[in-house]
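Propose amino acids for all 341 sites.
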């Protein structure tokens, strides 16, 4: 199997995934049976209770054709209160219910003496391969993915990425990391994407117009863009929510370099969070470490853009060919490249 070429000049972390940011873990629950090709992926910002120890976060909507839950409160308050969940479009409500139940189990006064919890669920439409009308996702799938969270996780056609398509090839989960410095301090940025977007002719790999060559070897679909991509960026650099929104915006640079034009029907959403400190639920005052200066953030912006681009390529190169509903099939990039040669 061919590997994705390295992107940019920054060094990757030892795992080459978002888990290079200490404390961040990822888990999957994959449904793979005939017309059901879908799943849930969970990203935990730390191993504790996200409701009681929130982390700062900021989001950016590049193109808003999406059905996510929780973004409004993240924009207002600038923190995460649950792990981040990824699934298919019709599974969003079910997964949000599972997040709420998990928060209530850990904190029985949620929604009573204590404030409600803000579930955070992102989605992409996997309906080409997966029968979304079957409503196959249930709350146990979220809990299974949560329980599976680890710093060693699979990428490609797994979890929420099982039924996803990318550039008319098999897409899914991809991840990457980059090391960078701010002054004399060394930090890590890591990205995880749910890649489900693009037309084959647009596919660009490390600056090379690979998609055009592949398109000449196989028929391209002509349906309008109905994909999406969710881009998550974690860092251990000390930032506030405003700065993290600026980091999230740089995901668009990495996305564009793969050939995306943020199509009309594509929900392109990025979220960045920092693990440098937590915001205690009950605190009267918050102890925040010295924050990075805005004028010193360029290395992080580069790390964010490069890790997102690398993560998209990782999703493409990691995925295997998948057959799903009504005989639909998405071949992997590796299979397409072998066929071309």
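Proposal:
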């Amino acid at each position: 199997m061919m590997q994705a070429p390295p992107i940019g000049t920054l060094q990757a972390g030892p795992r080459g995934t978002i888990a290079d940011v200490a404390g961040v873990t990822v888990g999957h629950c994959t449904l793979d049976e005939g017309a059901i090709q879908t799943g849930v992926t969970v990203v935990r910002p730390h191993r504790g209770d996200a409701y009681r120890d929130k982390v700062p976060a900021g989001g950016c909507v590049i193109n808003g054709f999406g059905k996510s839950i929780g973004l409004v409160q993240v924009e207002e308050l600038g923190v995460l209160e649950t792990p981040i969940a990824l699934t298919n479009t019709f599974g969003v409500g079910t997964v949000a219910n599972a997040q709420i139940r998990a928060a209530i189990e850990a904190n029985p006064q949620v929604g009573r003496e204590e404030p409600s919890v803000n579930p955070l669920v992102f989605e992409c439409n996997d309906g080409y391969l997966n029968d979304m009308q079957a409503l196959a996702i249930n709350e146990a799938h979220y809990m299974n993915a949560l329980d599976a969270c680890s710093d060693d996780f699979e990428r490609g056609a797994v979890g929420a990425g099982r039924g996803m398509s990318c550039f008319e090839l098999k897409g899914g989960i991809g991840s990457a990391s980059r090391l960078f410095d701010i002054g004399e301090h060394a930090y890590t940025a890591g990205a995880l994407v749910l890649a489900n977007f693009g037309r084959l002719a647009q596919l660009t790999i490390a600056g090379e117009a690979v998609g055009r060559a592949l398109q000449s070897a196989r028929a391209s679909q002509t349906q309008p863009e109905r994909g999406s991509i969710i881009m998550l960026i974690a860092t251990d650099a000390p930032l506030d929510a405003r700065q993290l929104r600026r980091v999230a915006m740089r995901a668009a640079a990495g996305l564009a370099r793969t050939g995306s034009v943020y199509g009309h029907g594509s929900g392109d959403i990025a979220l960045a969070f920092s693990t440098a400190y937590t915001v205690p639920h009950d605190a009267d005052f918050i102890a925040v470490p010295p924050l990075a200066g805005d004028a010193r953030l360029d290395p992080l912006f580069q790390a964010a853009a490069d890790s997102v681009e690398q993560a998209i390529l990782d999703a493409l190169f990691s995925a295997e060919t998948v057959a799903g509903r009504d005989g639909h099939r998405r071949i992997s990039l590796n299979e397409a490249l072998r066929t071309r040669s």
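Residues 39 and 160 are 4 Å apart (CA to CA). DSSP finds eight helices and 15 strands in the chain.
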